[in-house]
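Hi Y.,

Following your request, here is the sequence exactly as I used it, all 108 residues.
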Amino acid sequence: MMGITLTESAARHVANYMAKRGKGVGLRLGVRTTGCSGLAYKLEFADVINPEDHVFESHDVKVLIDPKSLPYLDGTELDFAREGLNEGFKFNNPNVKDACGCGESFNV
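Below is the corresponding structure, written out as tokens. Let me know if you'd prefer a different format.
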């Protein structure tokens, strides 16, 4: 198992957001079934660590992943990038075989 890493930019964004929010233990990552290719990422701020969560730490930010999602996300690097007027998280996931044209879903 390789785990999940955040780039410095992603970690800084998460830490700033949690500070503004005033609470939170970390970032929860997961996958859900959807879209043209089958799987989509779920990303939310977590206030509790569940007993079954896998916890990875990157640049002092905790990333929580449920056991079902881990095989699809193992080895992923999460980046936060600004491209033109858009900014957002980018998943650099080595497990992805095909991503759909809409960029919202993928399969492994």
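The CA atoms of residues 33 and 39 lie 5 Å apart.

Thanks again,
Q.
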